[in-house]
């Protein structure tokens, strides 16, 4: 049975992943998600440690580096979803400058390929720290 894909928009802050992980912990039942993370952070010696620690703290979440130029991260997402796992994806990619930028094609391709259950989560960026304003 395919897993659960959580799409989060808009992605406009480096705080977004932290906020989503905390929110998933707070609402319960969403532990052990795989977060797709920019390789500049997921593979960085210091940031990787911080993100791994925070993932464990907020519900045993893990991460996979996802680079638009390489299919390796997408393969990890596919395997996780095909195995019934949960994946958190920011479909707009990593450019944080514009809130209204379109989704990259990878999210739609992933949905067509695996056919997971899909939930959309929206973030409000009007304050200093984003907050989830609509969720599952």
What does this structure look like?
It is built from five helices and six strands; from the N terminus they run βαβααβαβαββ. With 136 residues, the protein is of the alpha/beta class. The protein has a six-stranded mixed β-sheet, sandwiched between helices. α4 runs parallel beside α5. The protein is globular and about 40 Å long.
Radius of gyration: 14 Å
- Our measurement of the CA-to-CA distance between the termini, rounded to an integer number of angstroms, reads 20 Å
What is the percentage of strand-forming residues?
A: 15-25%
The residue fraction in helices comes out at: 25-40%
Q: What profile does the largest beta sheet have?
A: 6 strands, mixed
How many β-strand stretches? 6
- What structural class do you assign from the helix and strand content? alpha/beta
Q: What does the overall shape look like?
A: globular
Summed over residues and divided by their number, the pLDDT gives a mean of 91
Number of helices: 5
Strands of the widest sheet, in order across it, are 3-2-4-1-5-6
| Parts with pLDDT < 50 across at least 5 consecutive residues | none
The H-and-E topology, N to C, reads as EHEHHEHEHEE
